[in-house]
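Researcher: Let's try something more involved. This one mixes different molecule types, so please make sure each is placed in the same coordinate frame as the others.
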Amino acid sequence: MAALQAGKGAVLLSCHNFGFSKLVAPTLARRGYHVHRAGGGKKGGHRVSRWGKDYRINWKYLDHRGDYWHRLRSLAAVRAALALNQVMHISPRAYDRGEEEAAVQFFGRKYFLDSRWFRLFQMLQAPVLPCFAIAGSGGKMTIVIHPALPASAKPMVRQFAVIVSDYLSRLPECGRLWKAVYLNRGQW
Amino acid sequence: MEAMEIERRVVQLVRETVPECGDLNGDFVLLGEEGAFDSVTALELLLALEKEFGIVVKDDDVQPANLRNLESIVNFVKAALARRA
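Model: All components are placed in one shared frame. Result:
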């Protein structure tokens, strides 16, 4: 991956079901990359997972849910992985409120990406590449990795929000927020 | 390094990281759920501490006893410098 040539690691940025951890991180790990997946939804703290027949293929899951101190340790782990020129796979959380440049269009409504991640990426200076796993006909999955986003936080989040909005308009079945949409919830 | 000098440099780093930080004396909480720094800004401060003092903040170091307020951060830096020496 050309993005790793600068030696500052690389961030693959996904969202919804476009980049779920069961696919992108293990697939890249199988191709020889050191991959960490950061996200919520996996209780039990950080863990190392194995994938495929070859048990040497590992990828690490960083659970950034939890209290302030756990989140801070997780961010430090993200930084440490990037310093080792490894790949981080992250899906920012969505909120019902946020900054306008972080707004993603979703079925006539908006939700907002967590801007803190983009501040972190700017600080760590790692290239950030939008990454989407797309299901094709016949069960084939394709991982699409876009060129790097701008290095500054605000243009970075703005451009990613536009890309996410486009994917969601073309492939709404990959969205995860249906329950909130159906119930017309203000809170995502 | 003198304790006063460490404190002066830590205060400077804190103010550079969050310029609108108020009175840092007493138990003004810097890091924590109720603190002035969100987790990303806190990481920025940790990186600045590492660079300024040539110390390494390990995973186990990231806890309230070490980093909650100015006093605990200064004590942590002193201990880290002593470990390094």
